[in-house]
Amino acid sequence: MAGLWLGPQAQVLGQFGKLFIEAIKTIAAPLIFFAIMDSILTSTIRWQHARYLVMVITINTFFAATIGLVISNVFKPGFYLKLDALNTQGADLGKFKGLEKIDIIKTFVDYVPTNFVDPLDRIL
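The chain above was modelled as a monomer; its predicted structure follows.
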């Protein structure tokens, strides 16, 4: 919707969206992992209940994937994206060697790791 209202000026919002999604991905994976580990380690489940739990998880996963695929096929995200316009934006900068346009938002987005292991991997 913002793209329809703002036109080309909405590209800045895409960078903020990317930063937000990367921050969520960074935080979500460890939170989900520790929540699952906590529930496994602190609960006592009988075998009959474990089978029921696996069945419920399987059905839930099936419906979640089905809903996601239906929404994706109905709204078709990226269908109207014109990649030609994106590839030619920086063409004028190629004339000047060593000159690059500095994008502050992209710089901040690059500082956000996709998960907590990536920064440690770079150090080691």
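The chain has a mean pLDDT of 77.
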